[in-house]
Design goal:
alpha+beta, globular
């Protein structure tokens, strides 16, 4: 009986830890030469890459790594036509962040939506 209870507790703990992954909503706008190219909104699990491709000219991937202080490290890769940038930076939840690399501009707004 004690073994059954231990197995039940262990399986519950594993199930709960799988369900309890932190989830983030990332709203992004990508500009090239001042023109808006795309504005995807992605739901991303912590430490897992999410990506989107639109046609042959646009692809975007990102990983959100949470920090303990209401910020997250964001690693991205954006390709527009033949131009690719791979900015990486730390953002505060709920505050828009902007990064410009050459003709490319990227704005991000990250919100924690679940855990």
């Amino acid at each position: 009986m004690k073994m059954k209870a231990s197995l039940w507790i262990a399986s519950f703990w594993v199930s709960a830890s799988c369900i309890a992954a932190d989830t983030y909503q990332v709203s992004t706008t990508v500009y090239t030469h001042g023109e808006k190219v795309a504005s995807p909104v992605l739901l991303v699990e912590a430490d897992k890459m999410a990506s989107i491709t639109i046609g042959n000219d646009f692809s975007y991937s990102l990983t959100v790594t949470p920090n303990p202080d209401q910020t997250a490290h964001i690693a991205t890769e954006v390709t527009v036509g033949d131009n690719r940038i791979m900015p990486s930076f730390t953002v505060t939840y709920g505050t828009e962040a902007t990064m410009e690399v050459g003709a490319q501009k990227l704005t991000l707004l990250v919100s924690k939506v679940g855990s």
